[in-house]
């Protein structure tokens, strides 16, 4: 890349966990994961959605396993995905009867790459520890990792009550919110300790502690990261719809990632009716990429536009290039290794246009209102052409395609070697 960009801080050390061939933590790149919203018992719909999520870039996909029909469907979903050449690991999300479903459906226990347990709703009273233990024993028997996923909406009430009572005895009691944070952290850590005592090694335990407030999430994970070296799954629960969900998740997860905390992320967006479930994968990738952790697709930098340009040419061009890239990426990933590092700039006028374009690998500065109707194109920091006339957009798109072929295609690599 031609420009100057800062790198993120170093990551927190965590014990790596192998989830069906995908390493989470232990210094591996932050993993993107997602969850289906189909009825798992509906094999066709679930296979289609898992395939779409995997093709969009989800490296792990979680599915709900809530009843016998869902558990029975899991091995058939796995087989169908394998036949499609989609090897994305599947995680089973269990609540209340997970121990029973895993015992009754060995094919399900085998086909899943990880079991997710919520210690707050694994069972009640004396059944709780026994049923939690039974799932952990299944994980040991089948050689699978687990995620111990605490959620404040289903927090272990007995633990919270005990901590509230203890807090009353303190000379300077914590606030109710602080006690709740401590209960969430303890629930995760005590459950992990119990799983390890049963015999599940630490390199098969991932922790998460989801809440729905940005500041709460930052506080809880900062403490969890300070008190353990477990691999951590980050996610803001009930983040919401549209821009609210994206902003809240990005703010919370971004702050933690910046501190080096987090080994895998999921952006929990509520899709609009009929909306595309893969949006959560795209947002997760964009968050990691804009923060400098990973590269997934070429970046298109575009100015926001202002009163200096009344034309919509640059907006359309930026959008066309962005869509072109997303559409072509599945093929380009194979054909042009390294293409995800490409940076394209599409700028609206001469004020910042040439400067920003020079920082990109290839950039164009379109004419603003009243400017000479010419568009300089910069390649690798140097002016390479000046486009004129009505076909500027088409010509620039062709120049981008030629640049990709030259730099990332077989010929370009051979010439460079
Ligand atoms: S590059 Fe020009 S058109 Fe774009 S925001 Fe800046 S001043 Fe406005």
Automatic annotation (TrEMBL):
Keywords: 4Fe-4S, Iron, Iron-sulfur, Isoprene biosynthesis, Metal-binding, Oxidoreductase. It catalyses: (2E)-4-hydroxy-3-methylbut-2-enyl diphosphate + oxidized [flavodoxin] + H2O + 2 H(+) = 2-C-methyl-D-erythritol 2,4-cyclic diphosphate + reduced [flavodoxin]. [4Fe-4S] cluster binds at residues 303, 306, 349, 356. HAMAP family: IspG. This is 4-hydroxy-3-methylbut-2-en-1-yl diphosphate synthase (flavodoxin). Pfam families: GcpE, GcpE_C. SUPFAM superfamilies: Nitrite and sulphite reductase 4Fe-4S domain-like (SSF56014). Residues 300-401 form the IspG C-terminal domain. Pathway: Isoprenoid biosynthesis; isopentenyl diphosphate biosynthesis via DXP pathway; isopentenyl diphosphate from 1-deoxy-D-xylulose 5-phosphate: step 5/6. It comes from Mesorhizobium marinum. One of its GO terms (molecular function) is 4-hydroxy-3-methylbut-2-en-1-yl diphosphate synthase activity (ferredoxin). InterPro entries: Dihydropteroate_synth-like_sf, IspG_bac, IspG_bac-typ, IspG_C, IspG_TIM, NO2/SO3_Rdtase_4Fe4S_sf. Belongs to the IspG family. Transmembrane segments: none annotated. Its cofactor is [4Fe-4S] cluster.
């Amino acid at each position: 890349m031609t420009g100057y960009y800062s790198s993120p801080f170093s990551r927190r050390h965590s014990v790596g966990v192998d989830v069906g061939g995908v390493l989470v933590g232990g210094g591996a790149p932050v993993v993107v994961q997602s969850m289906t919203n189909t009825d798992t018992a509906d094999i066709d719909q679930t296979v289609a959605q898992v395939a779409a999520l995997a093709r969009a870039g989800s490296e792990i996909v979680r599915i709900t396993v809530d009843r016998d029909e869902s558990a029975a469907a899991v091995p058939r979903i796995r087989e169908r995905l394998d036949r499609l050449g989609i090897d994305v690991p599947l995680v089973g999300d269990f609540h209340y009867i997970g121990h029973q479903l895993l015992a009754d459906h060995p094919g399900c226990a085998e086909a899943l790459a990880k079991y997710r347990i919520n210690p707050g709703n694994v069972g009640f009273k004396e059944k709780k520890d026994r049923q939690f233990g039974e799932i952990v024993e299944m994980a040991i028997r089948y050689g699978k990792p687990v995620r111990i996923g605490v959620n404040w909406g289903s927090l272990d009430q007995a633990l919270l009550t005990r901590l509230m009572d203890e807090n009353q005895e303190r000379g300077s009691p914590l606030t109710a919110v602080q006690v709740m944070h401590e209960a969430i952290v303890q629930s995760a850590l005590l459950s992990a300790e119990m799983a390890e005592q049963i015999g599940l090694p630490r390199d098969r335990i991932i922790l998460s502690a989801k809440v729905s407030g940005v500041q709460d999430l930052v506080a809880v994970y900062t403490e969890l990261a300070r008190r353990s070296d477990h691999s951590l799954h980050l996610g803001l629960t009930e983040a919401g719809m549209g821009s609210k969900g994206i902003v809240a998740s990005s703010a919370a997860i971004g702050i933690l990632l910046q501190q080096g905390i987090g080994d895998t992320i999921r952006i929990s967006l509520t899709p609009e009716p009929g909306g595309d479930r893969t949006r959560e994968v795209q947002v997760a990738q964009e968050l990691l990429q804009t923060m400098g952790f990973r590269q997934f697709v070429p970046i298109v930098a575009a100015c926001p536009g202002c009163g200096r340009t009344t034309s919509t040419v640059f907006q359309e061009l930026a959008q066309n290039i962005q869509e072109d890239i997303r559409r072509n990426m599945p093929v380009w990933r194979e054909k042009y290794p390294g293409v995800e590092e490409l940076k394209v700039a599409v700028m609206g006028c001469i004020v910042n246009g040439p400067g920003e374009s020079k920082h990109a690998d290839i950039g164009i500065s379109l004419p603003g209102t009243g400017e000479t109707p010419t568009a300089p194109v910069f390649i690798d920091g140097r002016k390479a052409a000046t486009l004129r006339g009505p076909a500027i957009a088409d010509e620039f798109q062709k120049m981008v395609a030629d640049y990709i072929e030259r730099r990332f295609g077989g010929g370009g690599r051979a010439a460079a070697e």
